[in-house]
């Protein structure tokens, strides 16, 4: 049986990615080696790499850890999006092939199983990610933008100027002491900044997702922005956690946007994508 000697910087997630191309295999490695705390492995440990079949992860035919879904008037007949349909909706230079599989897996797992539900989901992730082009939060703000958007944290010109165009510092200030993050010096604000097609933000939500989906994004949060399957699944998880299918069934874009955005920012763009999605899916 193949083994791996732990090197400096290794985590169970990176080892799983290296040998199985699937970070979700980390739990198999932990189980095979009797590791109770996957966050505490030591350099020099010789780990057995189990030759087991892939776990039931975010798969279109075998969804992992099914969750109760809100009651719906629709039957669960399911829907699949083709690559050409996805490209028609997004109209972007992003690579569609890798996202097509991820989207279909997500639709299956989170019961986004009618053309109308899928149209609303696709419209929201299209707006939030700029058509799959942006998988993590852009915090490169000018001083004026900081005062406009985060006036609570930047109340004068001097302070705003001190932080301007420094994304690390900005994130650590505006996300400090909330959403499960530590203080500004902890670095949690930057570490757990927004990532994914609907952005996962804050240590609390990274931890909740990790617990629900058995993917250790707390220790390796960058995976959410680097793995298209994870980036998409995070969006589905958020959608499901807010029971947004019921609003999609009512064709209520404003209600969905409110629960994703906290307001109605970008409503015109979201409507633009919704119209495209409905047209592509024949709604």
Automatic annotation (TrEMBL):
An annotated Gene Ontology molecular function: chitinase activity
Domain LysM residues, every copy: 2-49
InterPro entries tied to this protein: Cell_Wall_Dynamics_Protein, Glyco_hydro_19_cat, LysM, LysM_dom_sf, Lysozyme-like_dom_sf
GO-annotated biological processes: cell wall macromolecule catabolic process; chitin catabolic process
The protein's name: LysM domain-containing protein
Region ranges (Disordered): 56-77
């Amino acid at each position: 049986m193949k083994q791996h000697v732990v090197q400096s910087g290794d985590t169970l997630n990176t080892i799983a990615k290296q040998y199985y191309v699937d970070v979700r295999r980390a739990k198999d490695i932990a189980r095979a080696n009797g590791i109770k705390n996957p966050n505490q492995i030591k350099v020099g440990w010789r780990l057995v790499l189990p030759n087991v079949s892939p776990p039931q992860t975010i798969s279109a035919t075998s969804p992992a850890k099914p969750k109760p879904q809100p009651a719906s008037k629709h039957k669960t007949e399911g829907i699949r999006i083709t690559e050409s349909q996805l490209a028609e909706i997004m109209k972007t230079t992003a690579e569609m092939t890798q996202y097509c599989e991820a989207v279909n897996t997500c639709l299956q797992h989170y019961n986004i199983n009618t053309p109308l539900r899928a149209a609303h989901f696709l419209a929201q992730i299209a707006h939030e990610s700029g058509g799959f082009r942006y998988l993590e939060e852009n915090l490169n703000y000018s001083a004026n933008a900081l005062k406009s958007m985060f006036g609570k944290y930047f109340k004068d010109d001097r302070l705003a100027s001190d932080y301007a165009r420094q994304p690390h510092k900005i994130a650590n200030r505006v996300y400090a002491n909330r959403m499960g993050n530590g203080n500004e010096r902890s670095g949690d604000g930057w570490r757990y900044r927004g990532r994914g097609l609907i952005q996962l933000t804050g240590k609390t939500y990274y931890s909740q997702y990790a617990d629900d989906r058995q993917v250790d994004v707390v220790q390796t949060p960058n995976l959410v922005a680097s793995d298209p399957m994870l980036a998409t699944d995070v969006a589905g998880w958020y959608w499901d956690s807010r029971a947004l299918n019921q609003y999609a069934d009512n064709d209520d874009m404003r209600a969905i946007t409110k629960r994703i955005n906290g307001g109605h920012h970008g409503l015109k763009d979201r409507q633009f994508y919704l119209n495209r999605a409905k047209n592509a899916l024949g709604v």
